[in-house]
Amino acid sequence: MSKILVTGGAGFIGSNLCKVLLDRGDQVISIDNLNDYYDVNIKYWRLEQLNKYSNFKFIKMDLVDKKELMDLFECEHFDIVVNLAAQAGVRYSITNPDAYINSNLIGFYNILEACRHYPVKHLVYASSSSVYGSNKKVPYSTDDKVDNPVSLYAATKKSNELMAHAYSKLYNIPCTGLRFFTVYGPAGRPDMAYFGFTNKLIKGETIQIFNYGNCLRDFTYVDDIVEGVKRVIDKAPEKKDGEDGLPIPPYKVYNIGNNHPESLLDFVQILQEELIKAKVLPEDYDFEAHKKLVPMQAGDVPVTYADTTDLERDFGFKPATPLREGLRKFAEWYKEFYKVECK
């Protein structure tokens, strides 16, 4: 049983991780600034599920507030920190760059400083498959160079990895970065394609399928992501000295992805079938009249594809939830949450 801080605990991955940790008996404290980047009602719904646990505590806090964060660390003495709080989204970073500098750089710096002054056994933090940019080599390996981000969001995530490495080297802080690949599932983020498509189709609006449907995505179901994070939490990089007697940074980076990219057109086809099956949409819905193939958009990449060899080797785990199963669970949740019922 550990005392664990989960930042971004009202978020998609964060709330699901909190539940798993609470179920196994850990004491979980979560912070989140509850910003309105997307519908805050979903964030409150997630927190309602967590507030049922006696070993859970939520604090509304912004990571940019360094003093408040330091006071929390001084008071609570965390064993483990999982930093999932961040401004997400590739396209939003083009129009709202300040949000990314504040949350993803200054906020993460404050987390590193807190872990430096109030040492923890393990800092686990979210990176992203976006760091691979437009790399041509697939699947993406953590051994690949990632020096050419195509969005500010990706640049901030790569910066997180570099900052964590520096603090790991300087202060011997065990750090593990996790590059997540296109996470989806129930109570997800409305800005993600599957959620946004559903919202538009419900309203009879047209959905835009970028790169004329020729994108490939390594869709990863949220339960698989959380299982991977849980295993990583429990196995911090080992502290050891090099031949020169100086500490080797206890630092690792892993991909967590499905290792099975799907075409966007196949994804849309499965989504529409599961929305009909869940009675979110009527059986006679005319999808062809509500979809439009359009060019690639700025900041996006044509393919994401995770090499999970290291994850399998070190933790005996590989995400494997089929896309249809994951989208079915999303459709069923959507029907219940939004009280949708088609005949």
Automatic annotation (TrEMBL):
Pfam families, sorted: Epimerase
Recorded superkingdom: Bacteria
Keywords of this entry: NAD
InterPro entries assigned: Epimerase_deHydtase, NAD(P)-bd_dom_sf
The keyword RNA-binding is assigned to this record: no
Domain named NAD-dependent epimerase/dehydratase: residues: 4-257
PANTHER family: EPIMERASE-RELATED
The name this protein goes by in its record: Nucleoside-diphosphate-sugar epimerase
Species this chain originates from: Anaeroplasma bactoclasticum
